[in-house]
Automatic annotation (TrEMBL), chain A:
TM region(s), chain numbering: 73-96
HAMP domain location: 287-339
Keyword DNA-binding: no
Protein name: Sensor histidine kinase MtrB
Automatic annotation (TrEMBL), chain B:
Identification of the protein by name: DNA-binding response regulator MtrA
PANTHER family reported for this sequence: DNA-BINDING DUAL MASTER TRANSCRIPTIONAL REGULATOR RPAA, REGULATOR OF RPOS
Gene name as annotated: mtrA
NCBIfam families, sorted: MtrAB_MtrA (NF040689)
Species of origin: Streptomyces chromofuscus
Domain Response regulatory, chain residue ranges per copy: 8-121
């Protein structure tokens, strides 16, 4: 349905002039069309047909939505339809009964009347025959004349007893062939031939019995009477000359029809009332149930929106009241529990914050004392002087740990506020890189920035972004084993990204997600050269989330790692992708190398980055060696592809399925890596979810 | 030149160890510290010592630091630097609003503290005779006085510095960062709340209608500038 509405706007304008054509074409299929799911939407056929259908369905959509959402409407409409069905059925049965009753009486009365009439006609004919016999030979001509006259008299005399209750019609027996001038006769200006059905005449022709049928009496225009339903009873009788003719009695059913329509009208009125009243009753009854349910739904919504003090109004002791009571009890307990948890967490946060603050005053004293001692260390003996240095250094570390702890507690308390304004990320990167230069020099690392030809502007909190990037760059330098660190910038779509790539020890499978855990250490046994707090990446992750951005890590053992910060270009805009792929182009897999750094498969790809041994064998190789060769080789080759730079596109994360396929033919150990990758993907999407949720 | 500058500093802090350590550091830098540990006695000690600068801990027994700050400010424009353990709370803003010129967050390094104190005392150097006009105000820089229609307006040294900085370049819009550097002596980006609070305090003294400032005009999204004279 969404597909329809999305495409409708352009389609409709084009279809308008065609619509009549479409209708005509659809005419033969119209029935199927309605059956085939006008409302199910499962119509296949010509595009014109579909357009017409869409046009028909469009105004129905709100109604359908109302139908789906409104139980009261559902119940009322169902009640109406069902009671309508019952009333109709009842009506048909009753009307049938009444009609049968009325007609039975009429038919019996008519039959006795007609039988009497036929007898009278026969007697009349016999008497007339006797009369003519008495007359002697008056001649055929005269007899014929007599019969005509006799018949007219007969019709008049027979019908005279009816007083409009019946009419009499005589017709020549067509079987006789000889009409003898005896044309049809009728009383009451009835048109005889039109009023007697043909099949009845045929039956009477071929049989001598009495037959009856229903018909409509058609009157001569001069009578100014409308045709009337009637019962016709006919028989073949003989005239005085012993020639057969047909005699019909026509009994109008006007009275019966009047009675029937009166009954029908009464029933229809009653039925209508019943249906409407039933509908109203259903509406009232459902309302009694639905109103509290709706109230409960509304209050539940408000509860879930955080207004925990909302309660239902409870009156009476019925089931609805019990629902209300149970609901209120639930809300009460919920509120209590949430309150308790909130209190607990507030207490805990407060404790962390208080501890951090309380530590500060003595720490200030210690710090100043240490500085005074440190200043004077030249006058001490070497042991005391070194102690003074250690004291000062560790105080720095202690201080930053305390600051980080406070920062984390601020995030946990939800007290962190984003002060976003448009900033050029290149400025931030420049500051960070120049800040990290001294450390990089000590480590023998060169930090290179790529992708800074154009401004990379995003709405962000400069202080926080700088903190994140400083953390990433310092980490990269520290774990880069003296090899290059590359900082890439890119922007595309609604997102900007900074990726920090190092070629150091990298990350073991599964570590890409764990690096963000608090106080997590890559290798507890490894000596720490610089005093990180273990909270840096956790804070960085919180900073990224605060921006609605992502902070993700990728790494391979011995192949270095890449940390990527992706931020939405404008605050509050959800991220859909990152301009920089998480796995760099010069990763081992992308270069077709296996874990040992040897080319796999055909081997036509040259391993331009020197083979790096995996983590535990690192010392075999002199660390400074690889740098010049990489400068000449791999990096310039890999960079242009990894770096969109000008007008980049959003690079979607490769589907893990595709990767797997690649891995099947891949080097040994690929299994392990793919599982790591999968975990990473899961985590990254989790970050995405989390940030979108905010 | 700076290192020879003498200054009396009153340290208002209840933590005796910290106060003593502050004393050691300040003496080492050539200042003359005096101490008071109780908020109730702070004002008397202030009157007695006549310090050039007050170092004030916000959390004190007796009268709290905010109250002490307000009392001192009521009778003197002497620079006040607050010591606080919480930089992100309203305490800082309240402290600044009650008259403190600057604040420093614990734990601080001795050098940082001394730099802050020096920055506040630096203005006592001999200024050149200079007359400035801003709005309908006349500023005598050397005489440290601001007059409107011959009526003198009392400003603290910091507020005076702020006004002079704006008045010297009436064509220039000052960002908060620039003001922090010029008036407070911060090299790196610091808390811009300092500027906001002190501009408000300055306006309440020099503007005819602080709601519609004419002397210190806000330039939205940029900072402040001097109003047309």
């Amino acid at each position: 349905m969404s597909r329809d509405s999305a495409a409708a706007a352009p389609g409709r304008t084009g279809a308008r002039p065609e619509r009549p054509v479409g209708r005509k074409k659809a005419g033969s299929r119209w029935g199927r069309f309605l059956e085939g799911g006008l409302l199910q939407g499962g119509v296949q056929g010509s595009p014109v047909l579909r357009l017409v259908l869409r046009w028909v369905r469009r105004p129905l959509l709100p109604v359908m939505r109302l139908w789906r959402r409104n139980i009261q409407l559902k119940v009322v409409v169902t009640t109406l339809l069902m009671s309508l069905g019952v009333v109709l059925l009842l009506g048909f049965v009753v009307i049938g009964q009444v009609r049968n009753g009325l007609l039975d009486a009429k038919v019996k009365a008519s039959q006795s009347q007609a039988t009497g009439g036929f007898a009278a006609a026969k007697q009349n004919a016999d008497e007339a025959a006797a009369g003519t016999a008495d007359d002697g030979a008056a001649g055929d001509e005269h007899a014929e004349q007599n019969v005509i006259q006799w018949m007219s008299d007969l019709v008049t005399s027979l019908s005279s007893g009816g007083q409009g209750a019946f009419e009499v019609v005589t017709l020549p027996a067509s079987a006789g062939g000889d009409t003898g001038g005896r044309g049809p006769r009728a009383s009451g200006r009835v048109i005889p031939t039109d009023s007697v059905p043909e099949d009845l005449r045929e039956r009477i022709d071929s049989n001598t019995g009495v037959f009856q049928s229903y018909t409509r009496i058609v009157y001569h225009p001069t009578a100014h009477k409308d045709p009337q339903p009637a019962l016709v009873i006919g028989k073949q009788v003989n005239d005085p000359n012993n020639n057969p003719y047909q005699l019909y009695y026509l009994f109008p059913l006007t009275q019966e029809e009047k009675s029937l329509s009166l009954v029908k009208g009464t029933l229809a009125t009653a039925g209508l009332f019943v249906v409407v009243l039933l509908g109203a009753i259903a509406w009232l009854v459902v309302r009694q149930v639905v109103t509290p349910v709706r109230m409960a739904a509304g209050i539940a919504e408000r509860l879930s929106a955080g207004r925990l003090q909302e309660r239902m109004k409870v009156t009476g002791e019925d089931d609805i009241a019990r629902l209300g009571e149970a609901f209120n009890k639930m809300a009460q307990n919920l509120q209590l529990k949430i309150q308790q948890l909130e209190d607990l967490s507030r207490m805990q946060r407060r404790f962390v914050s208080d501890v951090s603050h309380e530590l500060r005053t003595p720490l200030t004293t210690v710090r100043m004392a240490a500085d005074v001692i440190h200043e004077a260390r030249e006058d001490f003996d070497p042991v005391t002087a070194r102690s003074a240095e250690l004291l000062a250094d560790q105080l720095d570390r202690f201080e930053s740990l305390l600051a980080d702890l406070l920062e984390i507690s601020r995030f946990d308390a939800g007290a962190a506020a984003l002060e976003a304004e448009p900033i050029d990320l290149r400025e931030v990167v420049r500051r960070v890189v120049s800040g990290a230069e001294p450390l990089a020099e000590r480590k023998g690392t060169q930090i290179r920035v790529v992708g800074d030809q154009q401004p990379i502007v995003a709405e962000a909190d400069a202080r926080r972004v700088e903190r994140v990037l400083r953390n990433l760059v310092v980490n990269a330098v520290e774990h880069g084993e003296g090899k290059d660190v590359v900082v890439k910038l890119a922007s595309a779509g609604g997102a900007v990204a900074v990726a920090v790539r190092d070629y150091g020890v990298g990350l073991k499978p599964g570590e890409a997600t764990r690096v963000f855990s608090r106080f997590w250490r890559a290798d507890p046994a490894r000596a720490r050269t610089t005093g990180g707090t273990g909270l840096g990446l956790s804070i960085a992750l919180e900073d990224a989330r605060l921006h609605g951005g992502w902070l993700q890590a990728w790494g391979e053992p011995g192949g270095g790692s890449q940390f990527r910060l992706t931020l939405p270009r404008t605050a509050d805009e959800p991220l859909r992708g990152s301009p920089i792929p998480l796995e760099p182009k010069d990763s081992r897999r992308n270069r077709g190398l296996n874990d040992a750094g040897l080319p796999s498969g055909g081997g036509e790809k040259v391993a331009t980055v020197p083979a790096q041994t995996s983590g535990d064998q690192v010392s075999v190789m002199p660390t400074r060696d690889p740098i010049p060769s990489r400068h000449g080789g791999a990096v310039p080759k890999a960079d242009p592809t990894a770096l969109p730079g000008n007008g980049a596109r959003v690079v979607p994360r490769p589907a893990s399925g595709a990767r797997r396929q690649e891995d099947i033919a891949g080097p040994p150990g690929a299994e392990e890596r793919s599982s790591e990758e999968a975990g990473q993907d899961g985590e990254s999407s989790k970050h995405g979810e989390a940030s979108r949720g905010r | 030149m700076m290192s020879f500058m003498k200054g009396r500093v009153l340290v208002v802090d209840d933590d005796t160890a910290l106060a003593e350590m502050l004393g050691i550091v300040l003496r080492g830098e050539g200042f003359e510290p005096s101490f008071v540990a109780d908020g109730d006695k702070a004002l008397a000690a202030f009157r007695e010592a006549k310090p050039d600068l007050v170092l004030l801990d916000l959390m004190l027994p007796g009268r709290d630091g905010i109250e002490v700050c307000r009392l001192i400010r009521a009778e003197s424009g002497v620079p006040i630097v607050m010591l606080t353990a919480k930089s992100d709370t309203v305490d800082v803003v309240v402290g600044l609003e009650s008259g403190a010129d600057d604040y420093i967050v614990k734990p601080f390094k001795p050098k940082e503290l001394v730099a802050r104190i020096r920055a506040r005392l630096r203005r006592s150097e001999e200024p050149a005779p200079e007359q400035l006009a801003i709005g309908d105000l006349v500023i005598d820089v050397a005489g440290h006085s601001v007059k409107r229609d011959g009526q003198s307006i009392a400003l603290t040294p910091l507020e005076f510095d702020l006004l002079v900085a704006l008045a010297r370049k009436p064509w220039q819009v000052f960002t908060r960062e620039v003001l922090l550097e010029q008036v407070w002596g911060y090299r790196h980006a610091a808390d811009t709340r300092l500027v906001n609070v002190h501009v408000q305090r300055l306006r309440s003294k020099v503007e005819k209608d602080p709601e519609r400032p004419e002397i210190v005009v806000t330039v939205r999204g940029v900072g402040y500038k001097a109003g047309p004279s």
